[in-house]
Amino acid sequence: MTPSHTPPDIALGDFEQSDAHLQRKIGLWQLIAIAVTVQIGASWLLAPLATAGLAGPAAVVTWIFGGLIFTIMAIPWLEASTALPRTGISVRGPQFTHGSLLSWMNGWGYMIACITLPPIEALAALTYLGGQFPGLGLLHVVDGVTMLTWPNGILAAVLLIAVFFLLNVFGVKVLAKTSAWLSLWKIVIPIVVAILLFFSFKSENFTDFGGFAPYGGSSIFHAMTAGGVVFAFNAIRVIADFGGESANPRKHLPIAIVVGGLLIPLVIYLALQVGFLGAMDWTSLGLTPGDWQGLSESNWAASPLVDALAVAGFAWFGTILLMDAVAAPAVTGLTFAGISGRTTYANSVNGALPTIFQRLNRFGVPWVSMLLCLIVSLLFLFPAPSWYQMVGLVSTALIVSYLIGSPLVMVLRRTAPDLTRPIRLPAAGLLCGLAHAASLLVIYFAGWWTLTNLLTIFFFALPIAAAYIGPRLGWFSHTVGYTIAIVFTTAWITLAWAGGWILTVGTTKREGTLGDWTFITLFVAAVLLTLLVMWIAGNADGKRQVAAAVWMPVSLLFAMIAAYLTDTTNGHEKILGDLWTALLVVAAGLVSAVWATRSGFETEEILAVLRSEKELAAGREHGDESLQEQKV
């Protein structure tokens, strides 16, 4: 079969001609399969316990609210992904509307999220395996957190992650066919598990032992990120990143996003959560009835669904589930290994990374990007190789890129009104504003510890931009760029360690460190001063691009401070109520949406696409005239 390359109706700018060599082999059902494969990974195995431990029986509401809010968040991507069907559009989108700095910051955050997903899926698979076979020596408990051991557990994870990336190197056809065959398995097994759990259903688990919401309404929302709900629904938008390799992206992407990314996973996760809550046996868990927070350290923590099936009288099915417990996260890790490589490739197309990362092998796969992602993925196995520890951080990193969807749609409405739009949202301003506010709200729900650690990694994008992007684009000299990068990096690492929150096990703070408000003040000041110095040092284009990017760091810093106001870890008392803080974040999200839209400008990249569209239209018109002449 002859490979299908870029269809004649997809306009590419001069700067993205490497996309023409990508092979468009992924059909509708394969796109849906990939979406389901990403969704039904580690979360279905561990999230029912993690979410119940944070919210009690109200975890059911967490899943419903998660599905609703992610539906809102995905709306802008229905228009954006079909107007610009590109591989890695989540990364490349801002390049068309806000320029290189915002594109790089967004791309850096999304790249880190995607690179950490293969390790977290490997952790899930090995956690289940180690829980059922303690003799393998894969797991141990540190400060109440179940994590992999050295060397057995970590070396097993290294091997599994390496397999993920090696399979991806052999092309999208292998990835698509693997996902398609295993997606049916991954749908059937969770449904069967949920049905079996209902045979041991105890309704009192929903009403007794502290009531339906033993930790209050705020726990419902906190459980979205820390419990793995956000992690479960992230593929609603992730599937758009395969737009450059879809056979018919403008028709197939919206269907795959809705069906594979939302409807199928929501039904499965709700059934599992209700079934698990009903099947819980406090004696078998080794807990005092009502000790929901103790679930993460209970006898079931390593393999909750296998243990729940055993209590329900279906231990025989536990063997099949254990096979799936290894296979399901492994296939999801395989898929995200491919996405991480494409994200790095997209950063290179945007000019944020050297062109070597665009190099394709004979299967049309960016193999150099894949190699980089493999190396970085392995680093995330340290210092705390635990699914429960990493899930909130990875989930929130994925949500940061959702902030791009709304301004991408609204800026293009202004700067490229004639761009081909197979889907044109009604009331776009309202819908995009709500989606933007919802995204910032979910980021806030992640909590103080998660956001502090995530943003410490995220803002390392600034010294990289100063040292590489700024001089490459002529904003300032290499000397100025290197100076900014060295000063910021030195100060940032010092502050991260002195603050006491970074790289800790659990959500504890190291002793003998800075006061929280001192840390917050220095954290915010370091970011804003670096941006100010880049703006002052930059030429006219540099000033414009720095100004176009500022809204994102400010929005993320606001969410972090808001999370501190409602933080209760380490004996900290809330400064502001949950409801008022959430309303404040929503209001800030609406302001951020307007700011982000007004910050966008007509970039050279979108002008190149528009020129290409005109050339394609002229070619079609000429072809139609020739055809009519032949008929005459």
Q: What descriptive keywords fit this protein?
A:
26 helices; globular; 2 strands; disordered N terminus; 632 residues; mainly alpha; two-stranded antiparallel sheet
Annotate the secondary structure layout.
Layout (H helix, E strand, L loop, with lengths): L27 H12 L3 H13 L3 H25 L5 H4 L7 H33 L6 E4 L2 E4 L3 H18 L2 H26 L20 H9 L2 H5 L1 H4 L10 H31 L2 H4 L18 H8 L3 H35 L17 H13 L7 H14 L4 H11 L12 H18 L2 H11 L2 H12 L5 H22 L16 H22 L2 H10 L1 H15 L12 H22 L4 H28 L1
Antiparallel strand pairs: 1-2
Distance between the termini: 35 Å
Computed over alpha carbons, the radius of gyration is: 24 Å
Strand content: under 5%
Q: Main β-sheet, in a few words?
A: 2 strands, antiparallel
Q: Please estimate the helix content.
A: 55-70%
Work out the number of β strands.
2
Question: How many distinct helices?
Answer: 26
**What is the average per-residue confidence, as pLDDT, rounded to a whole number?**
81
Order of helices and strands: HHHHHEEHHHHHHHHHHHHHHHHHHHHH
What topology, given as strand order, has the largest sheet? 1-2
Task: Name the shape in a single word.
Answer: globular
Q: Regions with pLDDT < 50 over 5+ consecutive residues?
A: 1-8
Helix-strand makeup class: mainly alpha
